[in-house]
Amino acid sequence: MSKQELVELKIPGTTGSIKIGNIYTVSPKADGESILTYEGQGLAKPIDPELNTLVNPPFNVDMGVWDLGFHEHSPCLNGMDDTTKKAHLAKVKKYIVEPVENIKGEGFLDHKSTNKNLDDWMINLAVGNYFDTNKPLHLFSLYAAMLGKELAPKEQETNPIYRKAQFCVENKENEVNIKQNRAFNKSKAIGQFHQLLETDRKHLYAVLNYLGIAASKSTPDHTLNSLFERWLDNYKVKDTGEEFVNKTKYFVTEKGKEELYLYQQLEDLVKKGTIKHINKSFYLDGEDLGTHLKTIASQIVEDDIKKEQILEMHMALDK
Questions:
Q1: Model pTM?
Q2: pLDDT of 188-217, one tens digit each?
Q3: CATH of domain 253-318
Q4: 290 in Cβ contact with 282 (< 8 Å)
Q5: Would you kindly state where each structural domain of the chain is located, as residue ranges?
Q6: Sheet containing 276-278: which strands, arranged edge to edge?
Q7: pLDDT tens across 122-167, in order?
Q8: N or C: where does the chain have the smaller number of CB atoms within 10 Å of the terminal CB?
């Protein structure tokens, strides 16, 4: 579908719309009451890079139906004039209902409460996730999340109707540009990887372990290269090449070095049982530090008292 042929699908009951044929990416949502409170990003608190939310398509409890705007009596279409409603129903039938049911089977999007397909349909929202609206299942998930006000259009993120949304969605780039950017970033990452392999293996191992790639001086180079390239190719929700390049740059700064070192210490303290991992959270002396070690490290690096506590506890491990 070319740029000239893009069809705009408005989301009932919201200020949002989707241009079918574009790629949409998920980004953090600003806190409307705390604009420009965190490093100029309009965020009330630091972004948790591992935060994700699973949401269902919207269900109208009062009417006992899946409220997707695919049926003329859908509650979300109330107040819509007949001409607009007819046009909307024709669009969703052509671009969502028929293509999705061609893939998943007739009746998959039925609005009745007994339809367990929609009960089981979970939409994963996380920073960096993307929806390719050329793909029917992606388009349906994006439409459903926006209809349920779980995703706010970037330009409308402070609108009160999206108060429950944790994320924004924005029309970024077409698929060709995304693939080109990822290929370019992958090439840069591979170059950076081999440069570090030659010049600073210790730093490379630390960065790779931070990113979830098990690496040590005992790992043969060919195995390490294979593990790294496999990780690079796993870009379902984020640009892994860009992430690697950005992390290697950040972790050579003074603050970055400190954060990476803290992360390694936290991992050691967890392995030794000093920090307890209970029900997804990490606890130190009964204090809930959070659910992700990377986020905890990024917060502790700003807290001199907590940082000193971690350093002392880690030193005690060697005694």
A1: 0.55
A2: 999 999 999 999 999 999 999 999 899 888
A3: 3.30.250
A4: yes
A5: 8-165, 172-252, 253-318
A6: 276-278, 281-284, 287-290
A7: 999 988 888 999 999 999 999 999 999 999 998 888 888 988 898 9
A8: C
